[in-house]
Specification:
The chain has ten helices and six strands. By secondary structure, it is an alpha+beta fold. It folds into two domains: 104 residues, DNA polymerase, domain 1; 139 residues, DNA polymerase, Y-family, little finger domain (Dna Ligase, domain 1), CATH 3.30.1490.100.
Length: 270
């Protein structure tokens, strides 16, 4: 697929949805990595627990900001921190349900079923850096690239989003998020990127540390064609986050990329 379309594809495989999802993330190309990824990561049966040791607890689906803060207060930030603990120790600190859940997850155990036809509730793009990044300009450039890719994914699916979320993982594995829900759904590169930049500035102003991971997520998705009116409310033009010009530029970029490849055209610096 890479040779035919110039698109990067990552494939993860494992004995559970949890392991496969994390493996797919590990298979993504990582700029600056010592060795390039071939886009495939398969975790053999029996190797799940060892594979999980490289991840932060925040990487586990279901461990949100509140859970991360609670676990951090106990001194647990990575899978390696928790993996040696007995189930009874986790239950004693977290309760039966949460303790058992975490005990299973850090070993790669996930009994949830696969639902291949489920409607997407959100789209996200993120990047784990080979070396921590603390320069605002460098982070801004990486955020912009992630936002552009996420908004392109939206348009490919005929969707728009009302909520933009930026995720930032600090060098000490603290993961923080900031979100903004808009009065109208957006889909253009410029609109998504502009909101994401505001959120990143807010996160960096609250706590400034070198960043290990940066991500952009789009949620509250609505369906609409390229020329559809995307406003969910009667929003005055002067208050709109996204203009018709933004949408027209996005359509032109998509057309060029479809004809000449994903790197054929992009936006200049603001």
């Amino acid at each position: 697929m890479s040779e035919a379309t110039s698109l990067s594809v990552s494939i993860g495989g494992g004995t559970s949805k949890l392991v496969a999802k994390l493996a797919a993330g590990r298979a993504k190309p990582r700029p600056g990595a010592a060795a390039p990824s071939d886009g495939v990561c398969i975790v053999a049966p029996g190797a799940e627990a060892e594979f999980l040791l490289q991840f932060a607890l925040a990487d586990l689906p279901g461990v949100g900001p509140k859970a991360q803060a609670r676990l951090a207060r106990l001194g647990w930030r990575t899978v390696r921190d928790v993996a040696p603990l007995e189930r009874s120790a986790l239950v004693a600190r977290l309760g039966e349900r949460e303790g058992t859940w975490l005990y299973d997850r850090v070993r790669g155990v996930d009994r949830s079923s696969v639902e291949p036809e489920r409607e997407a509730k959100s789209l996200s793009r993120d990047e784990t850096f080979a070396a921590d990044v603390d320069d605002d300009a460098a982070l801004g450039a990486k955020l912009r690239a992630l936002a552009d890719r996420a908004s392109a994914d939206l348009r490919d699916l005929g969707l728009a989003a009302r909520t933009v979320t930026v995720k930032l993982r600090d060098a000490d594995f603290t993961t923080r998020q900031a979100s903004r829900t808009l009065p109208e759904a957006v889909r253009s590169d410029r609109a998504v990127s502009a909101v994401a930049r505001q959120l990143l500035r807010r996160l960096r102003a609250t706590r400034r540390m070198p960043a290990r991971l940066l991500g952009v997520a789009l949620s509250h998705l609505v369906r609409g064609g390229p020329d559809a009116q995307l406003s969910l409310l009667d929003v005055p033009p002067e208050s709109s986050v996204e203009t018709e010009r933004d949408r027209a530029i996005a359509r032109a970029i998509d057309a060029a990329r479809q004809r000449f490849g994903p790197d054929a055209l992009g936006r200049g610096n603001p």
